[in-house]
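Data's thin. Show one?
=====
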Amino acid sequence: MRRVPRDTCDPFGATPLHNACLARRPAGREGMIKKLLDDGHSAKKKDAAGMTPLHNLCRTVGRSVSELASCASHLLQARADANARDKCGRSPLMLLCANESALPPMLGTLLGHRANVNARDKRGKSPLHTLCANEKVSSEMITVLLESRADANQQSNQLVSPLHDLCANWSLPPAHVLLQARADVNAVSKMGTTPLHELCANIGDYQCRDGVHHVQQLLETRADVNKLNDEGQRPCELLCFNFFQNGDSPTGPLCPEVLDSALAPLLSAEVSQLRNTSFQAKAEWFRGVLDMLLVSSLPPYPEFDLAHLEVHRDHVLQSMCPQLEQLTPHLEEIGFDFETGQGSGLTRELFVVFSSEMANENYNLFVCTDTDPPRLSLSPRPCVNEYRNSYLQLIGKMIGFALLKEQHLPVHFAKPFLKELLDVDFSFEDLLDFDPDLYKRLVHLRTYDEETVNQLGLNFSLDDAYFGKRRKVNLLLGGEDIPVTKGNLEVYLRLYAQHRMKSDEKALSSLKRGFHDFCPPALIQAARRFLTIEDFDKLLSGVEEIDVDDWQKHTRYDSKGTPRTKVVRWFWEAVRAMSLQQRKQLLRFATGRTSAPIGGFKLMKSEDEHIPFTIALKEGPVEAKVRSFYPTAATCSNLLQLPRYKSKADLEKYLSAAIKEQMMAFAEA
């Protein structure tokens, strides 16, 4: 090998030793480096970027780790500075940690020559930061730095910790090594993000299904699930947004499954704080998560028109079923065929009309219980309607849509129906709402003594003839050989009731499939930890009572009226004299609602804005027409307009007539 002039530089300030260390082919590299060093080439010389030959060697991608480590030893023995900095403030160790060749033997060589494991570059990043951002990082590499006393909580200029970088790394290596070194799981960057924010923002890649496990890891170390970043986002929101943004890829169908499994631990951690709070707080959390899912599912720059739905007022179910796919969280406008008007009042009217039609016994979808208030339960009678499952899927969607739009349905559902939506096990007592006749026959078994029960010859199997198909059903494994006794009678009753209420599996599956289009199973799983069946009933159908004092207290008046105005006083006197059903009808007439807002009338909203119930006075009729005396309403604005009646009797007469005739004036929101 011919002798190379000592420390000659190319236009970039690199010496032959710099170039030898950067050679991609390992063959002969070690010998060349050793020969140049023997010829007196400096191992400390810097190029135009401030890099030494050792810097170049540490950023070289090589297959032979032992060869690279040997080359590094030659340079260090020739007094190469293990802590030299380039113009970006990076040491050789930092470049090595960014390199896929950063395996323990090479790391050990530099650390053995006192490379500063906590050195910071101009961004404030340490070697541990750089390693945690390396896609090839492993637990073993992190352990090498930590054993050399690397600071697991060192923060960069942007207050980013190594755990932030590790969680932002799409390859999602195990974080347990850093967590065992007491890395702060709730460290906050200048952007307000925690490691959990970073993990949830990057887990959505379809190759990162194992990331769900890492979410659980952080939660087990008490990561804050409610921390907001500078954009006001919780980890859940970043997770949802990331998954939906990956939904257009060929692997997009994988996303909902992984999203659901990833949401479950996050939401479960959040709800632990809700068990002892008010119903209003529970409802706000539930609806807030639903709203978060809607916002996350919309692209940041939508290039499509939000869905518009037209339905026939007299045949709502039949006209909506062909448009089932359009009923999504994106739905913004809705209208009735051949009718003018738009806005939230029209949407509220749809829920009223829809609820009335789905309860119509001609469809044989529901039966009404003999309770106060009456409740709808899925019909136990056989049904040959070919559209039954489509109708139930539509009903499931409409229930989810109502929750999303913060609207109450003007019907109450029986416990078995609510439990099915919440995925809660049925009890024997639930059978009373589902099939009262069967319940009465079965509950009578409790009155029998042990001898009488034995004489019945019952066992844990049934001859099921439901829907015209006879089959043998075992309530327990080997049920034909297990006799029913007085001791196991309660188990028999419970299993019998559960089988009966779940016998129409296709119908229940259709109902829940529609419901889950708006309310993912992870949300339901979390909600049932703090929502009782009674809470869920109020969430769907609202509170039964209407507090007139609260209604009056939070009513606003236009410039022509005050609480002391004669017509206004007559109005409230009339409301107080009404029955509960009449008050509900009045509320529907004026606002489109069938129950008071959760939390009271102070929270009256329309189109997601706070719009209080308002009474406006209008002058008497110009023409002698009876309808000029009727009150009118703009449901989108929660506005009731009252003429200046001459007597309380006139007010009561025309208000009652307007409500009965459903003279609802839809004004634009």
Notes: Residues 246-256, 298-305, 663-669 have pLDDT under 50 and may be disordered. The radius of gyration is 35 Å. Residues 562 and 568 are 7 Å apart (CA to CA). Residues 308-426+509-541 form a domain with the Hect, E3 ligase catalytic domain fold fold (CATH 3.90.1750.10).
